[in-house]
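Progress note, project year one: complex with zinc ion.
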Amino acid sequence: MPNWAIHLIVPFLALIMVGRKKDYKYILLLLPLAVLPDIDTFAAEHRALLHNIFIPAILFFIGLSIKKMRGIFFIAAVYFASHVILDMFDGGVVLFYPVYNQMAFIDASIEMSKTNQLLWIFDYGFSSYSENWKTGYGYISDSVGTGSLVFVLAAGIWAAYRNRIFEKENE
Ligand SMILES: [Zn+2]
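Model obtained:
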């Protein structure tokens, strides 16, 4: 995974920007869905079982058909889809699992070399779903990710605390 922080912050910001004020509560409450797909590591189907196009698509269509809960299901779909998309940019996901067991990937990077040359890569396609993806070894959160999480968590605690004060003032 890019890291927990990126998976949380990117869709959260997008939803806050696009969402209506009455959706904010669900945008916050459903936030854990943004990292939930990674529990497929434990099923040894990492980047496949919960990293496909079908789960967000199902959530989206449920939202379309249940008008009353549309916002909730759309938010859930965005959290799932954003995780899948971000992982596509970070190695790939088995996008059409279990129908087509190849990893869809996008590789897009821009780098400045030591000789001041701009190096850019843009590549996409399918690659094989190899054994070492299945258990998802490696970082759960890299150092930058952990630092960012602490930062966001502190903001969350502060927001909760401030809300409480605010409510008291209104009593
Ligand atoms: Zn993932």
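The helical segments are 4-18, 24-29, 54-65, 70-88, 131-134, 143-170.
The first strand starts at residue 102 and ends at 112.
No further modelling is planned for this target in the current period.
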